[in-house]
Amino acid sequence: MSYIRKTSIEGEQILHLFKQHWLVYVIPIILCFVVVGFFLVIPLWFVEYGVTNKRVVHKEGFIATRTDEMKLDRVETVELEQPILGRILGYGDVKLTGMGVSDVIFRKVAKPFEVKKAIDSALDKL
């Protein structure tokens, strides 16, 4: 029950009740999505993948950082994993397995076939 109905006095008749326009609700919802989306996307800006002539590097983070590195001469296999949506949109995971127990994974990297090809090319030059 509305406040106006609850608080009407004896003999008082409600002629009309009005609601806010739906746009009033849409703008805050959009702003919430933008703000939440912004905080979800920020970490993605600080992810780097790279191959040098001596190592492969995966770094993520801005203030607190985490890195995975592997020397090229320690790389045993380069695997490519692409889900159906990844095939359609052109992304996938490239997993480098090295001697020992460590792996370096480039997650959801763009153009994964080119990444694998670049790593294989760097390995051939060793």
Task: Write up this protein.
With 126 residues, this protein is α+β, with helices and mostly antiparallel strands. It has helices spanning 3-7, 23-45, 84-89, 112-124; strands at 47-51, 55-60, 66-71, 75-81, 91-98, 103-110. The chain has a domain at 47-124: Roll (PH-domain like). The chain has four helices and six strands, in the order ααββββαββα. It is rod-shaped, with a radius of gyration of 27 Å.
What's this entry about, in short?
This protein has 126 residues and is α+β, with helices and mostly antiparallel strands. It is 37% helix and 32% strand.
In terms of DSSP E residues, the strand content is: 25-35%
Reported by name, the CATH topology of one domain is PH-domain like
Runs in which pLDDT lies below 50 for 5 or more consecutive residues are: none
Query: What strand order characterises the main sheet?
Result: 1-2-3
SS-based class: alpha+beta
Distance between the termini: 77 Å
Counting DSSP E segments of at least 2 residues, the number of strands comes to 6
Give the overall pLDDT as a whole number: 88
The CATH architecture of one domain would be Roll
Order of helices and strands: HHEEEEHEEH
| CATH class call of one domain | Mainly Beta
Our count of helices gives: 4
> Level of helix content?
25-40%
Biggest beta-sheet profile:
3 strands, antiparallel
Q: How big is the Rg?
A: 27 Å
CATH superfamily of one domain: Pleckstrin-homology domain (PH domain)/Phosphotyrosine-binding domain (PTB)
